[in-house]
Amino acid sequence: MDVTDDARAGDGDSPVNHVRLADPADQEAPAEDDGPLGEIVVVDINSPELDMNYQRIGAIKAEELERMVCLERLFLRWNLIKKIENLETFTSLVELELYGNQLTEIVGLDTLVNLEILDLSFNRITEIKGLNNLNKLKKLFLSNNKISKIENIDHLTSLEVLELGSNKIRTIENLDTLVNLQQLYLGKNKINQIKNLNTLKNLEILSLQCTRLTVIENLEELTNLTDLYLSENGIETIQGLEELKKLTTLDLAMNKLTKIENISHLVDLEELWLNNNKIADWNSINCLASNSKLVTVYLEKNPIFDDPNYRRKIKLIVPWIKQIDATLVR
């Protein structure tokens, strides 16, 4: 599963939400009292992939899978599975998805040494553990669980995507060794400070939407960052972006900003989302004239939005703009 599948557009007032959401068709997980439990059904024993999503499966049983000697990808999304078990012999697995089950802990993965993608989102997991032998892991999805601490992943040095949104995490920590990480999603946690990211020099996407941030700081080493998502926080000033010259998307919607500043050096900026702030001074909008690649700007639901010439003024300042808020420029 590509992480971009989970960057849902149009969540409330934010143009894009990078906190993982349930699929529209899957808003309610299956309940145990809705009928008899299902079983894993194998149609082609030579297939490298088995998809048994939303089948009310209650357990992973060895006898149901043992003939699939070529299995590489196993999808068991939205079932009633309480424990990861009976997968010891499937050492050729490269992708395992148990999104939306009833797991409370990470176990039973020790022999899956070739696993590259693991999705355990939307479960009841409280602790990151049980990943000791998964050194080839490239994508790890643990969003919408009950995890309170980032831990026990420092050995996952091949990791490129880490999704920990919608948990109970308070501190960014224990990521120093993940030098190949390209995408980090930590939205909807209790984080109040950006820190401990200095070694993640290959990071391209950072999402800290809907946390408890008040200051943009400690980003100077992330010079390869292209997308920064900080909406739904308490940020009052645009700052700390001096070294982020590769930024193409900056999301600061739904904060406490009163003016636009300190972004003139972002010459590659294409998407700027500042809606739902407190920007009242048209003079601060003039700085956008330096962002010659700007394609889209969101400024609705600021005090300047009440100006009857709102769109016209923006177009005069940035005549090359193609979209203002949700509407294309004619």
UniProtKB/TrEMBL annotation:
**PROSITE patterns per UniProt:** LRR
- Region Disordered: start-end pairs: 1-34
Segments of skewed composition (Basic and acidic residues)? 1-11
Which InterPro entries does the record match to this protein? Cilia_flagella_integrity, Leu-rich_rpt, Leu-rich_rpt_4, Leu-rich_rpt_typical-subtyp, LRR_dom_sf
Can you say where in the cell this protein is located?
Answer: Nucleus
Keyword tags:
Leucine-rich repeat, Nucleus, Repeat
Bias (Acidic residues):
25-34
Pfam families documented for this protein: LRR_4, LRR_9
State the family it belongs to. Belongs to the SDS22 family.
| Role summary | Cilium-specific protein required for cilia structures.
Name it: Dynein axonemal assembly factor 1 homolog
